[in-house]
Amino acid sequence: MKTEPDTFSFDDLMNAPQHITSWEGVRNYQARNMMRDAMKIGDQVLIYHSRIPDPAIVGTAEVVHEAHPDPTALDPKSPYFDEKSKKAGASRWCMVDIQGQKALPHPVTRTIMKDHPILSRMKVMQKGMRLSIMPVSQNEWEAVLKAGK
DNA sequence: GCCAACGTTGGC
DNA sequence: GCCAACGTTGGC
């Protein structure tokens, strides 16, 4: 799961009560569907910091609550407000809750990933990939943890 | 800050 | 239902 650390960082997650937060603000159908249809309690998650000088995978988390409606879509004061949800009277968007596990001892930066036989082929490295939530294979997961040791 | 890539919107 | 215009994302 991708996040801009200026908005919500891995540290913010670890500083939240019980390290748990609702992943609010996803406004892309593909990403939403992945949360709604694919993400289950206990699923392991990598947290990636984007839009910084050297973007990186910085830590791990776990799904602790399956998809439920994202109320920020109905709040006109929220940056994630969604007019269409308001009109429909229900949020079109959903979110899962995740619990931070631990920071990687060494963040796995794009620079590192580029030169890695497995990591260079991860979805997040593909050109034009803008999805904020992407599947990670078992192989990739293990390679990330190893590179981040 | 630039700009390529992509998603969404809305006129027709 | 097409597609041009527009807005956003995110690496660089």
Structural write-up:
The model has no long low-confidence stretch (mean pLDDT 95). Strand 3 (44-49) and strand 4 (56-69) form a beta hairpin. This protein is an alpha+beta fold. 25% of the residues lie in helices and 28% in strands. It is globular and about 50 Å long. It is built from 5 helices and 5 strands, in the order βαβαββαβαα. The structure holds a DNA duplex (12 and 12 nucleotides).
Short key terms for the protein model shown above:
DNA-binding; five-stranded mixed beta sheet; 5 strands; 25% helix; 149 residues; alpha+beta
Helix-strand makeup class: alpha+beta
Using the alpha-carbon principal axes, give the shape. Answer: globular
Q: How many DSSP helices?
A: 5
> From N to C, what is the helix and strand string?
EHEHEEHEHH
Strand order of the largest sheet: 1-3-4-5-2
End-to-end distance: 20 Å
Beta-strand proportion? 25-35%
Give the fraction of residues assigned to helices: 10-25%
What's the rounded overall pLDDT mean? Answer: 95
Which stretches are poorly predicted, pLDDT < 50 over at least 5 residues?
A: none
User: Would you report the number of β strands?
Assistant: 5
Radius of gyration: 16 Å
Biggest sheet layout? 5 strands, mixed
